[in-house]
Amino acid sequence: MIAIIDYGMGNLRSVEKALQSLGADVVVTGDPAAVRQADGVILPGVGAFGDAMENLRAQGLVAAIQDVAAAGTPFLGICLGMQLLFTSSEEHGFHEGLNLIAGHVRRFQGDFKIPHIGWNDLTLHQESPLLQGVEAGDYVYWVHSLVVEPKDRGVLLATTDYYGEVPGIVGQGNVFGIQFHPEKSSRVGLTMLGNFVELVREGVRA
Amino acid sequence: MLTKRIIPCFDIKNGRVVKNVSFLTNERDAGDPVELAKIYEEQGADELVLLDITATNEGRATMLDIVRRTADQVFIPFTVGGGVKTVDDIRELLLAGADKVSMNTAAVKTPQLITESAQKYGSQCIVVAIDGKWNVEMQDWEVMINAGKVSTGISAIKWARECEERGAGEILLTSFDQDGQKNGFDLDFTRRVSESVRIPVIASGGAGEKSHFYDVFSEQGKADAALAASIFHFKETTVTEVKNYLRERGVSIR
Fold it and tell me: Which residues are listed as membrane-spanning (chain A) (predicted)?
């Protein structure tokens, strides 16, 4: 069972349906106990970083997330959910994040169109179970105004270029983050989500 | 590199695609917006726009069901527009699975709608559709509302800037001089608006052949995305053909 965390930050239907289309057993839940019991956990979300952390705290989800991540449960943050994995963010002030991966979230800076909206291609930095069947140059759909700056470049699995390098997929052990929207990235995105489902199945078998 | 987006658009009335779409020959599927959306995803469409032109309450309930079914089966982003008047309308469409909601007349009448919805749901899902027409006296493009029937005296360029300031994430810009003419997008209008804002501009109105997409993405048009309806529905060309054409000419395309 994969738990999709519902903490009042945007519509979770697309992520749920994409996973179901891949044959995964999913539950959308805001209950920390259900998150602790899941074989895999997805933290989706759109909106503001500060509000998101506040909601996670209010629902008692912060400790649950930190515990399952530490226990080795496959964990995937998507979009805002990826940014929340990091130490802190400068979106509307300074906010502490989940700190599962060391680094900071900052605004795009420069004389170009923001948000970064649309299909942009991936540069792959290292092999990962999440990238099975994904090739360099594959296009995925992005919508974001902030970017993560990991402390250790070793966590970068894939990046794109938008007036500079933009981290697209990060991974550290069992914890993964995807900045773009795999559930809206047609075949390529569904391949990645399918890889995550497979990781969860392997975890259950092991 | 960020690519230029090709966006098919279709009108929906009481849950059915309004115009006959020539390549949907199977009777069961003909007119089903969800089937059409799946075909466009297959063809490589980058996004979709579903416009609800239903006026009745029953029709609106049907539209929510279409949005739900589209979200369940189509894995590219889609925008829903048509008759959006309140923050609650936006909320309902987003909850049903729309990635973005576009507003037009209501935003002109109540600009606060943009501000409020962007604050509540984020700029990324708020699209303001601007219908513009060249006004000789104003020597400017004028904003038209109520599907082009009512002129407002408002400069479309100034209005686009205001939409951005209020938190719109994208501008869907339709030229009412070019719409339905099939002789190309309004390049000057698109370029002027695109240069005036720092959010993406989707050009609409006038696509009749492949080269029109090339023009609107060039320095003449500066569009970030281009929307078209009949050129795709009646199989004059396909999304795949347009994208191949653009790719061969060096345009960044998925």
Answer: none
